[in-house]
Amino acid sequence: MPYTNELCGLCRKLCCEYKTEEPLKKHTTFKIGGSCKILININSSDTLVEILKFLKKQNIRFFVLGKGSNILADDNGFDGVILKISKDFSHIEKTGETEIFCTSGTSLSELCIYAMENSLSGLEFAYGIPGTVGGALFMNAGAYGGELKDVVTSAHYLNEKCEICSAESAEMSLSYRHSIFSENPDWVITDVTFFLNKGDREQIREKMNELMHKRKDKQPLDFPSAGSTFKRPEGSYASLLIEQCGLKGLNVGGAEVSTKHSGFVINKGGATFEDVIELTDKVKKCVYEKTGYSLELEPIILK
Ligand SMILES: Cc1cc2nc3c(=O)[nH]c(=O)nc-3n(C[C@H](O)[C@H](O)[C@H](O)COP(=O)(O)OP(=O)(O)OC[C@H]3O[C@@H](n4cnc5c(N)ncnc54)[C@H](O)[C@@H]3O)c2cc1C
Questions:
Q1: What's 296's DSSP letter?
Q2: Residue 143 is part of a domain; what is its CATH number?
Q3: Which of 66, 77, 120, 276 has the smallest C-beta neighbourhood within 10 Å, fewest atoms?
Q4: CA of 132 to the centre of ligand 1 (A)
Q5: CA distances from 84 to 16, 39, 75, 89 (A)
Q6: Phi/psi of residue 265, nearest 5 degrees
C-alpha cells in the first residue's frame, strides 16, 4: 500500500497507537471480521483532525469504529483505515449541576457509573449497553424505555471537510436506531453533552443493577454477538416473530439464533460473515412468509 508508511509515520508523530493488517474480529463483539490495512487508536480531537485530513487528501477509505458492538465485519476485511475511537479518547467531566460532558470514546457504562456517583439520574437505561458514547449517539441506542435522545443536549463532530461543527439534540434527527450521524457516516462525533436530573444515588444504583440483572437473565451474554440482530418492526418485536416461526436454535455454520433470546444471532464458535448473512436471510424469508413482517438488520455491515 503506497500510503501506509507515511500514515504510520504520522501516527508515530502524533503518539497514536496503530496496527497494520489488524484482524477486525479482535475489535468486534461478534468476533468476526478479516483484516484492515491500518487500525489507529485515536487519542485526541487534534490527532483525529490531522489523520482525517491526511486520509481525505489522499482519498483513502476509512471507517470509524467505537467498541465494535454493533458491527458485522466481512471476513475479507476492510481495504482501508479503521479509526478506533474508544478508550484512548475517553474523558468524562461534570460541567454543570446536572450536565456531563464526555469525549466520544468514553464507555457508555462508565458514563452511567459516573452519573450515578454524582447522583444524576436519566442514564440508568443505558447501563450494560456495551458501546462508546459516540457509537451510542450514532445509533441512538436505547433500552428499557429510554434512548440517547432523552438525555443528549448537544455534540461536536467533524464534518466531511474536517470542520468542527456542533449540533443541538433537536438537530440530530434522533429516532429509533437512527441519527443525522447515521445519515452521514463520514462525520465523526468528538464529544457529547448530557442533561440529567438530580436523583438519589442509591435509587439510581438499584435501578442500574436491576436492569443489568434483566440483561444477564434474558440475553445470551456468554456468546459473542452484536446484540439484537434485527430492528424492531413497527407493531411487533423481532424476537417474538422469530420465536413464533419456530426459528430458535436455527443455525448456519457457527452462527445460531440464540435459544435464550431469539432476537440475538450468536457466534457459537468460528462463525463467518457469510454464515451470519445466510442465517439472517433465512430468518427474514421465513418471518416474512409466515407473518408478513419484513425484518431489517440492526448491525452495521463493515466491508
Ligand atoms: C450484548 C449486546 C447488547 C446490546 N444491547 C443493546 C441495547 O440494549 N440497546 C442498543 O441500542 N444497542 C445494544 N447493543 C448494540 C450496541 O452496543 C450499540 O449500538 C452501541 O451503541 C454501539 O456502540 P459502539 O461504540 O460499539 O459502536 P460501533 O459498533 O463500533 O459502531 C456503530 C456505528 O457507529 C459509528 N460510530 C461509532 N463511533 C462513532 C463516532 N465517534 N463518530 C461517528 N460514528 C461513530 C460506526 O461507524 C458504526 O457505523 C448491544 C450489543 C451487544 C453486543
A1: -
A2: 3.30.465.10
A3: 77
A4: 7
A5: 11, 7, 19, 9
A6: -95, 130
How high is the pLDDT of residue 2? 77
Is any atom of ligand 1 closer than 6 Å to the C-beta of 265?
no
- Tens of pLDDT, residue by residue over 251-263, are 999 999 999 999 9
pTM (2 d.p.): 0.98
Asked if 236 and 184 sit in the same domain, the reply is no
Report how far apart, in Å, the C-alpha atoms of 157 and of each of 7, 233, 289 are: 22, 30, 42
Q: How many domains does the chain have?
A: 3
Which domain CATH number covers 36? Answer: 3.30.43.10
C-alpha cell, 168: 443541538
CA–CA gap between residue 53 and residue 55 (Å, rounded): 6
Q: What type of residue sits at position 91? A: H
Residue 209 near residue 128, CB atoms below 8 Å: no
Task: Answer whether 128 contacts ligand 1 (Cβ < 6 A).
Answer: no
- 148 and 50 in one domain? no
Mark whether 123 and 69 lie in a shared domain. Answer: no
Residue 268 belongs to domain spanning: 220-302
d(CA 211, CA 289): 35
Please work out whether the CB of residue 65 comes within 6 Å of at least one atom of ligand 1.
Answer: yes
| Per-residue pLDDT reduced to its tens digit, 5-57 | 999 999 999 999 999 999 999 999 999 999 999 999 999 999 999 999 999 99
H/E element, 84: strand 78-84
Grid cell for residue 194: 448530557
Cα(124) to ligand 1 centroid in Å equals 17
Q: Are residues 123 and 77 in the same domain?
A: no
Of 216, 236, 255, which residue constitutes the final position of a domain? 216
Together in a domain, 108 and 208: yes
- Name every residue whose Cβ is closer than 8 Å to that of residue 84 and which is 6 or more positions away in sequence: 27, 39, 40, 41, 42, 65, 66
